[in-house]
Amino acid sequence: MKYLVTAASGKLGTFVIDYLLKKTNAENIIAMIRDPKKAANLEQKGIEVRIADYTHEKAMEAAFQGVDKVLFISSNANPNTLSDPTFSRIDQHRAVINSLKNANVKFVAYTSLVNAKASKTFLAEDHRNTEKLLEESGLNYTVLRNNWYLENELSLLVNASKGNLFAYSSEEGKVGWALEREYAEAAANVLFIENPQLIYELGGTSSTYAELAKALKKATNTDFDVKKISQVEYKNLLKEAGLAENIAEALASFQNDIQNGVLDLPSNDLEILLERKPSSLFEGLKELIQ
Question: Boundaries of each NAD(P)-binding domain copy (predicted)?
Fold first, then answer.
């Protein structure tokens, strides 16, 4: 059985490769990456590297030859990282799916977003459309709908652990934070399940930002102020920290989405794929904040 991981030189892909190495021999694993300069670390692990990016169907079709199962890691939505920056994210994903079909890949697992089909957040649209393309493709597939990485909050967490303000504007909205490596382990594990679920809603225990702050104080044994602020105040705080207007606006808007419940979808699917409970907030924070 041959397993291929797309975007394998990224952080999630690197974690997945390492978990696959615990489950099968290196000769059974293939890494698809965009940049040949990033091949060395993978090759040192005995992994075959194939070069292709999401804008070149023929290159991907060649990369997928002889592969049984693929983990399709979604694009990071930054067209400037690709050789053809005119491709939108959904165009990239469509090209991947076409290549998988043409290469007769037996199974693909796709990394999506929590509750993608019904979610109202702007982040969900490309994932929702990709899931629709998979549904229409005739491929045998599973969707891994990831909630939020705890690492996404790292800047906030590190600053607060140094005694700075912990500010948020999501009110009592909850998030299913989990460690990126646990999402990766779940993704690796699903490739070894004979008849996986069609959709897995993956995430940790749903928690508020206030609960995150409380866990951080305990994990780091530090004290800091925690303040619930308005969306406008949150945006201004981000701009004062040096973020561009459009980025600050998007992040503030997402806090509003969280307030409206877009990341609050309790599920034990991550526990099922890990075959254990995922790390608690306290455990995850202890790991991240050294």
Answer: 8-154
